[in-house]
Design a protein that fits this description.
With about 130 residues, this protein is an alpha/beta fold. About 45% of the residues lie in helices and about 20% in strands. It has five helices and five strands, in the order E-H-H-E-H-H-E-E-H-E. A five-stranded parallel beta sheet has the order 1-2-5-3-4, with helices on both faces. The longest helix is centred in the middle third of the chain and has 25 residues. The chain is globular and about 50 Å long. The two termini are about 30 Å apart.
């Protein structure tokens, strides 16, 4: 029996770059998916928040002449890209996941609500499932 019923896992987007320093290192992505699958096997429900720093950092963009708001929006799109990549890697491991995003992007991801995230995790008690949030 796990110590906690539900956890929120925060993954750095920059860590997805692995040794290459940018983009998505597929080996690192698959390692994360395997580790998440193992954690789910203990019975814990997992919500995941992933960053986008491996693709774009909004604050850094503002320092390079991008409008601050547009830079932040680009950074949020980067987090969705990482969420989709992780969701795909989890699917390859047999783990069902849902991508929820606070930016309306249907059909790429569902519009986030706390209740959708909780529902996704709770339905995972019979099947390995987690919610990739951003």
């Amino acid at each position: 029996m796990p110590k906690f019923k539900r956890i929120l896992l925060k993954l750095s987007g920059e860590s997805l770059a692995g040794a290459q320093g940018h983009g998505i290192d597929v080996q690192r992505l698959n390692q994360y998916a395997e580790q998440i699958k193992d954690a789910l096997a203990t019975g814990v429900q997992i919500g995941i928040v992933i960053g986008g720093g491996n693709i774009f950092r909004g604050l850094s963009g503002a320092g390079k002449g991008f409008d601050r708001v547009k830079g932040d929006q680009m950074g949020m799109c980067a987090t969705v890209i990482n969420s989709l990549a992780l969701s795909s890697a989890l699917g390859a491991q047999g783990v069902k996941s849902r991508v929820l995003t606070a930016i309306r992007m249907e059909p790429i991801g569902e519009f986030y609500s706390k209740w959708k995230a909780i529902e996704a995790m709770e339905r995972g008690t019979r099947a390995r499932r987690c919610a990739v949030l951003k």
